[in-house]
């Protein structure tokens, strides 16, 4: 029998939780670190034992991770190992929960709808507008994704960027990379045991991938360019 959301709510501890819904957890302010980490552990256990409601549980994990923003270093990796949920999925859930508080989520929409909006947009007004559009027009998550993709591509085109670059690179490429990441994560035990010769062959076959990772790592570590007023101040 698949676990329903009401059953999961009943299994939550009372301490620390102000409200529990299908779309998230609202935690009490000022939780002690021990209480907060206990909630993380409890929700992670529910993920391991429940046989359904995966979207709800992912949203709950996103909320408890977002709540501990200041003291949760390394916790995403721990949760991923404990639950089997891909670390990238948890990072996205945390980001969506930081951008869309429980009070701003739409009961008529799914968690996937909120992810489509919260991953793409950061401004609260734009997030609110897209959630309203999805609900008022009865858009499926897939239809909402297509609408957002078209909107972002048109915005880039108006700014002088190629619509192909905006849509394919920003959406299709990242989606394929996430799928690849999930496959590698599922088979981690296998590729960690590859022989040196197999590893060398893989590096040759995946040269574009290694170049991609090296380029992104170098760009991510590059210090930001000084702003004009910083230069003037010096």
Q: What does this molecule look like?
A:
The protein has 234 residues and is mainly alpha-helical. The chain has 3 domains: 1-105, no CATH class; 123-176, no CATH class; 190-220, no CATH class. It has helices at 5-10, 33-49, 54-67, 75-83, 87-99, 111-120, 124-136, 141-158, 163-186, 188-191, 196-205, 207-221, 228-233; strands at 17-21, 24-27. Strands 1-2 form a two-stranded antiparallel sheet. Strand 1 (17-21) and strand 2 form a beta hairpin. It is globular and about 55 Å long. The termini are far apart. The mean pLDDT is 82.
Question: Biggest sheet, in brief?
Answer: 2 strands, antiparallel
Structural class: mainly alpha
Distance from first to last alpha carbon:
67 Å
Low-confidence stretches: none
Strands, total number = 2
Shape: globular
Structural features:
234 residues, mainly alpha, 3 domains, two-stranded antiparallel sheet, 4% strand, globular
Element layout with pairings:
Elements: H1 5-10, E1 17-21, E2 24-27, H2 33-49, H3 54-67, H4 75-83, H5 87-99, H6 111-120, H7 124-136, H8 141-158, H9 163-186, H10 188-191, H11 196-205, H12 207-221, H13 228-233
Antiparallel strand pairs: 1-2
Helix pairs in contact: 2-3, 3-5, 5-6, 6-7, 6-8, 8-9
């Amino acid at each position: 029998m698949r676990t329903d959301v009401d059953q999961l709510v009943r299994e939550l501890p009372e301490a620390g939780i102000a409200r529990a819904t299908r779309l998230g957890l609202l935690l009490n302010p000022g939780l002690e670190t021990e209480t907060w980490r206990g909630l993380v552990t409890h929700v992670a256990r529910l993920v391991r034992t429940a046989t359904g409601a995966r979207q709800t549980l992912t949203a709950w994990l996103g909320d408890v991770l977002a709540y501990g923003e200041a003291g949760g270093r390394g916790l995403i990796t721990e949760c991923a190992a404990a639950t089997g949920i891909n670390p990238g999925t948890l990072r996205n859930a945390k980001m969506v929960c930081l951008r869309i508080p429980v009070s701003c989520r739409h009961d008529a929409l799914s968690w996937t709808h909120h992810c489509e909006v919260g991953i793409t947009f950061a401004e609260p007004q734009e997030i609110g507008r897209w959630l309203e559009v999805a609900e008022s027009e009865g858009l499926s998550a897939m239809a909402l994704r297509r609408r957002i993709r078209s909107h972002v591509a048109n915005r880039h085109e108006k700014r002088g960027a190629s619509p192909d670059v905006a849509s394919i690179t920003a959406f299709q490429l990242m989606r394929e990379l996430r799928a690849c990441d999930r496959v590698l994560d599922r088979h981690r035990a296998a590729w960690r045991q590859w022989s040196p010769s197999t590893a060398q062959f893989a590096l040759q076959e995946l040269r574009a991938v290694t170049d991609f990772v090296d380029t992104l790592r170098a760009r991510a570590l590059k210090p930001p360019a000084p702003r004009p007023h910083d230069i003037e101040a010096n």
